[in-house]
Amino acid sequence: MSNQPHATALEEGFSLQQLAEGLGSLELDGADDVMIMGICDDSRQAKPGYAMLCLPRAAAQADAYAEAANAQGATAIISVGMSVKTELPQLHLESMQQAGALLRRLFKTEQAGAHLYGVTGTDGKTSVAWMLREALTRYQTRPVWSTGTLGWMRSPDDICDIGNTTPSLLTMHAMLTAACLEDVHSVVCEVSSHGIAQQRIAGMDFRTAIWTNMGHDHLQDHGGYGPYLATKAGFIRDAAAHGGNVIANADHADIRELAPELACWYGHGLFRDDVDLAWEQELPGLLRLRSNGEEVVIEDVPLGDFHAENVACTALSLMTSQGVALQELPELLTGITAPPGRMQDVLAGFGQVFIDYAHTPEALESCLKAARKLARNRLIVAFGCGGERDREKRPQMGEIASELADVVWITSDNPRGELPAVIASEIEFGMVQPYHAEVHLQLDREQAIAEAIEAVEEGDILIIAGKGHEAYMEVCGRRQPWSDADIAESYLQKKNMSPDLRSAEAN
To answer: Which 3 state secondary structure label does DSSP give 154?
Structure first.
């Protein structure tokens, strides 16, 4: 259960007539005016004096929700893109953009000072948001927040679960309101394809939009890769059209084609003249950045080429949005951390076992290529694919794993309503036979992790991919507590015990 707020109280009442002025048409049903004391998007959260926000996604149930809100004492209905059958005064809005403008008027955030960053892309959103929040915190003294897969983060020790990578329209505006009240310098928001398509970000003025990469995820929800790509591109272009900065990855052909002409570009390879910031990683942990003929070196960056790319993206975002000079970057970025579950070293493994969120073909490929550079012996991977999601990526990930790793454990990963054995067979279908790798099938994920850890030898690297920071395993509509890191830690400690201690524990 997320803590995403579905109702927000106002410190003082707001006239419905004033709220409607210039935004929509008002039906007062005989009343002169009503005062709004709060707003909700869930009828169960309605209270006396509240307005109930009815959004297009719930159009089929809107009449029933309005009746339920009325029974709870709601004062008015605010309907978006539809007319709701209700006895309450009703404000009709034509679009989600009008709803966003209304919320900014209601919450008095029209002059909000916080710099809003929107980070989109198939992979890398969470890492860039994490790194940018950390770097901006180093850069100046005011608070910096982020929102996304990890939750609404005020600091690494203060994280609120918000359910979705990009939360609801009401939650986004409630967060902006809180940011204004607490004089927050910047809010870095992960912007998902679902969040864009459902216009949960309506009314949010992103001053900087960041496009990390493109791959395959959630394609079934968008009708294929083309619409998915267009959704991402639409967010970037919209931000640019409203005067926002655009930071884009020059190494992806689709991004290169669709990002606005005036975008600022970062790309791999130091000596190129088609980007604003070039990056190269010659050794793990060291990142070289080059811009306008000058170079700097960032030390102690998280392991993996993909994290080097994320740090480069963060660097160009700082340069473009805050005017940070290239020579200032080492102080801001040296020792920058990665979020939990992104090439996370399991300490009991002494640098041999890593947890990673890679759950797309592109992310798994990047992760395994990065891990190969660390391995002095074999590269081992344990992974699965989610149920009821993107079946086409299963054989792709099977092929990538069997081609890039030496030993593979196929296992379960949030099977939801599907049979894990069916998902595993579709992963295996993509593996080119005869297998390049040694392949094992173990549908019990804990057992697969245990077997993979037991197989690790001197010089091997084990990647446990797919779940990263996720604290649950979703099976048949139920989420069970889960942690790849805790399980790996437990089996590593057992493995690292002396033979005598292991024997004693077994007895």
So the answer is: strand
Closest CA to 316 of 305, 329, 302, 303: 329
* DSSP notation for 345-379: E-GGGTTSEEEE---SHHHHHHHHHHHHHH-SS-E
Cα–Cα distance measured from residue 102 to residue 95, given in angstroms and rounded to the nearest whole number: 11
Phi-psi sector, 236: left (phi>0), alpha (psi -120 to 50), beta: alpha
Q: Is the dihedral angle over the CA atoms 254, 259, 261, 263 positive or is it negative? A: negative
d(CA 252, CA 268): 11
Angle formed by the axes of helices 393-404 and 361-374, nearest 10°: 10
97 vs 198, 202, 223, 333, 477, CA distance in Å? 11, 5, 24, 36, 34
**More reliable by pLDDT, 343 or 4:** 343
What's this model's pTM, rounded to 2 decimal places? 0.89
Query: What is the rounded CA–CA span in Å between residue 56 and residue 205?
Result: 22
The CA distance from 503 to 507, in Å, is 6
Phi-psi group of 208: left, alpha or beta (phi > 0 → left; psi -120 to 50 → alpha; rest → beta):
beta
Q: What is the mean pLDDT of residues 376-387?
A: 97
Specify whether the backbone of 224 is left (phi greater than 0), alpha (psi in -120 to 50) or beta: left
User: Which tokens sit at 231?
Assistant: 């959704």
| CA–CA dist 55, 172 (Å, integer) | 15
> Is the predicted pLDDT of residue 157 greater than 60, yes or no?
yes
DSSP, collapsed to helix, strand or coil, labels residue 144 as strand
Q: Which residues pair with 9 in a beta bridge?
A: 38
- CA 78 – CA 58 distance, rounded (Å): 13
In this predicted structure, the answer to whether residue 3 has a pLDDT above a threshold of 80 is no
Residues making up the chain, counted from first to last: 507
DSSP-derived secondary structure for 367-429: HHHHHHHH-SS-EEEEE---TTS-TTHHHHHHHHHHHH-SEEEE--S--BTS-HHHHHHHHHH
Helices (H) and strands (E) in the chain, counts: 17, 25
Residue 495, CA distances (Å) to 254, 457, 460, 498, 506 in order: 46, 11, 15, 8, 12
Tell me the three state secondary structure of residue 283.
coil
How would you class 263 by CB atoms within 10 Å of its CB: exposed for 0-12, middle for 13-18, buried for 19 or more? Answer: buried
Q: How far is the C-alpha of 308 from the C-alpha of 469, rounded, in Å?
A: 20
CB 484 within 8 A of CB 381: no
3-state secondary structure of 246: strand
Report the C-alpha gap between 440 and 224 in whole angstroms: 32
Q: Tokens representing 252?
A: 């992806």
Q: Residue 13: pLDDT above 70?
A: yes
pLDDT tens for each residue of 405-416:
999 999 999 999
Omega cis (within 30) before 330: no
- Two tokens at 179? 């940011």
